[in-house]
Write a structure and sequence with these properties.
Length: about 325
């Protein structure tokens, strides 16, 4: 294999962008494990009181990721996130005004490998969310198990991440004054296993929980399509039925999260590593589908709204695909 090295002379801004993305990939892949490791190690050293105090705090703070979390405007506005979004770069695009007296549920597609677009747009202040959607607070819902990890959970909550549990989504959507946005990556971990460059398959047919939530709270549904999300990494071939896919699906059932085997570039060379490629992400926020509150929806009503959502998602994709380099004959498939 021929290794293609990065040039020696690279402008400082680009180096900082690479560093910003490196720390983010590290946080995603290893920081939780490091935090748990440090927490356990501390118990056996002379600073054992520290983890004991933290454990007491954790006991009282356990529910916070389900009740809106604990965000820090300051951390969301860190300059490191500006370099992060400039690396790809990430763009947020609005197609319709939203009404701040309502709550909204954004369905985000596709998951990609590390959901970089959702993070940049909804967990940092550097892609213009505040200017595009004044009066709104976005909450990005992630797997609850992330919040079981000491220290890491505080960092995650500081950027506006909250749990994806029912209770947590309810908390966000059940706001009388409106102005809340629950961002849910509908395809979840399962979809990351299809995150190969060029793939347009979304795991959505069986996913109806978000429809029920929207009906229960009368939250308007907004499809969001993030062009470029699947282009950031290559993934080892894992077609359905292959041994790798079977193993991944089994592990996902047991652990709740998926393990796509991915690779892209490194820090100093472009041939292998876990750093994403510098490829643009365009996250397009669609038009809202008005939803009337319905505390006891019938199966048909749920089905109907699900169908409407799929149609609107398809329309959004079709209207914008040309601008983002998707050939005319390609379209979304749902599974
Ligand atoms: C982020 O920081 C900049 C200054 O660096 C400031 O102008 C801006 O208002 C801040 N944004 C938020 C949302 O706090
Ligand atoms: C995308 O993923 C689906 C589901 O695994 C697969 O059937 C399809 O062939 C893939 N398409 C491309 C272009 O990789």
């Amino acid at each position: 294999m021929k290794v293609e090295f990065a040039p020696v002379h690279i402008p400082l801004a680009r180096r900082l962008q690479t560093a910003a993305v490196f720390q983010w990939v590290f946080s995603f892949l290893l920081l939780a494990q490091c935090c748990c490791g440090i927490f356990i190690t501390l118990f056996f050293g002379k600073y054992w009181l520290l983890p004991v105090l933290y454990a007491v705090w954790l006991y009282f703070d356990w529910e916070t990721p389900q009740t809106g979390g604990r965000r820090s405007k300051w951390i969301r506005n860190w300059t490191v996130w500006r370099y992060f979004k400039d690396y790809f770069p990430v763009h947020l695009i609005k197609t319709s005004d939203l009404e701040p007296s309502h709550n909204y549920l954004f369905g985000f597609h596709p998951h990609g490998i590390l959901v970089a677009g959702a993070f940049a747009n909804f967990c940092t202040e550097h892609t213009g969310f505040k200017e595009l959607f004044p009066g709104f607070t976005p909450y990005l819902h992630i797997l609850p198990l992330w919040f079981g990890c000491p220290f890491f959970r505080d960092y995650a909550m500081s950027v506006g991440l909250v749990s994806a549990s029912k209770k947590s989504v309810s908390h966000v959507l059940n706001n009388d004054r409106g102005g809340n946005i629950a961002v849910i990556v509908i395809g979840g971990a399962e979809e990351s296993l299809d995150a190969h460059p060029g793939n347009l398959t979304l795991s959505i047919f069986k996913r109806k929980g978000f429809i029920k939530m929207a009906l229960k709270y009368g939250a308007h549904l907004v499809p969001v399509f993030s062009f470029g999300e699947n282009e950031l990494f290559k993934q080892v071939e894992n077609p359905r039925g292959s041994w790798l896919r079977t193993l991944q699906e089994r592990l996902q059932k047991i652990m709740g999260f998926a393990l796509p085997v991915f690779h892209a570039r490194g820090i100093f060379q472009y041939s292998f590593g876990l750093m994403p490629y510098r490829k643009p992400i365009h996250t397009v926020v669609g038009k809202p589908i008005p939803v009337k509150q319905n505390l006891n929806p019938t199966l048909e009503e749920i089905e109907q709204l699900h169908q409407t959502y799929l149609q609107e998602l398809r329309t959004l994709f079709e209207e914008h695909k040309e601008k983002y380099g998707i050939p005319d004959h390609e379209s979304l498939s749902f599974k």
